[in-house]
Amino acid sequence: MPSLTDPCDLREVIDIVIGVDTHVATHSAALIDARTGGVLEEITIEATAEGYAELVEFADAHAVLRMWAIEGTSSHGAGLARHLLEGEEVVIELDRPERAKRRNGAKSDPLDAIRAAREALARPRLGTPRTGPERQALSVLLAARRSAVQAAGDAQRQLFSLVMTAPEAIRARFRDANGTGLVKIAAALRRRATADLETTTTITVLRTLARRIQTLTAEATSHEKAIANIVRGWRPDLLEQRGVGPITAAVVLCAWSHPGRIHSEAAFAMLAGVAPIAANSGQTTTRYRLNRYGDRQLNRALHTIALSRIRYEDRSRAYIERRTTQGKTIREARRCLKRYIARDLYRQLENPTPTT
């Protein structure tokens, strides 16, 4: 079978497409004739190892030359996608359908399975699921770290607010303290037997919040170390790029996944939400709209890299100055820089340079 990233007519190389609409407990599948687009048969299976095996047996009874079009390969369909890839099946990923694109607003699992298969037949290029043990490990660690950092931030803001409204005897202990110092003082607070109810309760809550912050911060640090070890073992060449640290490298690697999955640097830029969107009308031919689509975590990582390069790299500062003298705003010039960073990263990802 030709590469899924190359434009091709699937009707010439496969007999059927199996569209799958995935959910937590069950998956609905529809077999579609690749030449006519007609529905051959439908089935609903349990989202278990036994159900996946049943689905493969169901497909084996119809055709050997087949392809699977699965919605939610990184969420509800992750188990099925993994099972099929281990069996060397051809799997492509599809996004969940927008409600407006459903015919007359109709919604059902079998209909979504049929739509997934037919959409795969209509696409000139097809995307493969994100795979690889390193990528999956980074994805899990990033999710856990992000949760810990957000929870620690929430707790720290709550701590600061409670200190501001605490009785004066407590507030006096935090005078001129901020950040880490505020947390350390709160974690070391002790209740006195002679204190009133308000003071005792406030001290208890402040100490609980502070120790929660310390635990979450330690957890986030542990995840960061694990992420750094995986990135250094998998793609250390990325860390040689200016402004790319272990966390941003991990986000980029999770979005990219493996060579050949993203067919061009323009597609990578669109995935990152940094490709300019034309907004021309009439005689206006040089207007572009802010791209709010794509992987927002990847977009944020590119933004972090851009800010670092603008601050520490002469070449990037000169580029921003040149763009602003051409009439662009600082934000527009920064978006242009992010687009070039996406190009550099894509080329590095697809053609890694050996590290010494």
Structure overview:
With 356 residues, the protein is of the alpha/beta class. The protein contains twelve helices and seven strands. The strands form two sheets. A five-stranded mixed beta sheet has the order 3-2-1-4-5. Strands 6-7 form a two-stranded antiparallel sheet. The chain is globular, with a radius of gyration of 26 Å. The protein starts with 15 loop residues before the first strand and ends in a 6-residue tail after the last helix. The mean pLDDT is 88.
Topology as a string of helices (H) and strands (E): EEEHEHEHHHHHHHEEHHH
**Quick one: how many beta strands?**
7
Secondary structure category: alpha/beta
Q: Helix fraction?
A: 40-55%
Distance between the termini: 37 Å
Q: What integer value in Å does the Rg equal?
A: 26 Å
Strand order of the largest sheet: 3-2-1-4-5
Give the topology, please.
Elements: E1 16-22, E2 26-33, E3 39-46, H1 49-60, E4 66-71, H2 78-86, E5 91-94, H3 109-122, H4 133-164, H5 168-171, H6 180-187, H7 197-234, H8 246-256, H9 265-271, E6 277-278, E7 288-289, H10 296-312, H11 314-325, H12 330-350
Parallel strand pairs: 1-4, 4-5
Antiparallel strand pairs: 1-2, 2-3, 6-7
Helix pairs in contact: 1-2, 4-7, 4-8, 6-7, 7-8, 8-10, 9-12, 10-11, 10-12, 11-12
